[in-house]
Write a structure and sequence with these properties.
Layout lengths: L2 H23 L7 H19 L1 H4 L2 H27 L3 H23 L7 H29 L6 H27 L1 H28 L2 H6 L13
Helix pairs in contact: 1-2, 1-8, 2-4, 4-5, 4-6, 5-6, 6-7, 7-8
Length: 230
């Protein structure tokens, strides 16, 4: 790892730690349990790579951790969809028609990556496809929540918006690797991706530490009854 990569890894780890502490202090860990699991996995994998790069800064560990991340992102998307719609049967029935096929397609894509596929194909082809599926799933959840005027917890909005924005960047950078040369752009793309992810977790840290008074002052409709859910 270069000194630049080590610095970015340390900054990301610090931001992720601050998110987890903020969720605990503000008593928001129950807002999305799979998100807490995702952050904890990020913290562990980041620490392993930063402290023992000779062992964990490898292609095999990258593929393992990326598979874990993809699985947990999918779990986050599924939990958020459940939390948004489960109290509104009418909206749930209609949302299921849209979200269930998306969830099934992403799951199939996640478990059907051939074990014999080489590293470059996985990084530039399969992972971007999975990320695109997760983007569609989260974006559809947000759009349907707005369409049915459902109450959406502010941190759920933060997760959906943050993941969707970052994953678009991630998928775009991965496609650039495939289109313009893997070896030539790998380091540059990795640095750009690290900065994008650092921006994401820094923003999440701010959201995690927001007080209830600050959240309420924004006027988030957390207690408004759905008018289109029936």
């Amino acid at each position: 790892m270069s000194a630049h990569q080590v610095l970015l890894a340390n900054l990301v780890r610090t931001a992720v730690f601050l998110i987890l502490v903020g969720l605990v202090v503000r008593r928001r860990t129950g807002v999305c349990w799979t998100f807490v699991a995702y952050l904890s996995t990020i913290l562990v994998c980041n620490s392993l790579i930063s402290f023992w790069p000779e062992t964990f800064f490898t292609k095999s560990f990258y593929l393992l951790k990326q598979s874990l991340y993809d699985t947990l992102k999918l779990a986050v998307a599924a939990e958020l969809a459940y939390r948004v719609f489960h109290a509104f049967p009418g909206a749930l029935a209609k949302a299921r028609m849209v979200l269930a096929p998306l969830l099934a397609l992403v799951t199939i894509g996640l478990i059907s990556v051939p074990t014999s596929t080489d590293y470059i194909d996985i990084v530039t082809r399969y992972h971007p496809q999975i990320q695109t599926g997760v983007i569609w799933l989260m974006a559809a959840t947000a759009v349907l929540a707005v369409w049915y005027n459902l109450p959406l917890h502010y941190f759920h909005r933060s997760i959906l918006l943050g993941f969707t924005s970052y994953l678009i960047v991630f998928a775009t950078l991965s496609n650039m690797l495939r289109s313009f040369g893997f070896d030539r752009l790998l380091y540059t793309v990795n640095i750009a991706d690290s900065y994008a992810y650092l921006a994401l977790v820094s923003w999440w840290a701010i959201q995690a530490w927001r007080s209830e008074e600050a959240v309420e002052s924004v006027g988030a409709p957390q207690t408004v009854l759905a008018t289109r859910a029936a």
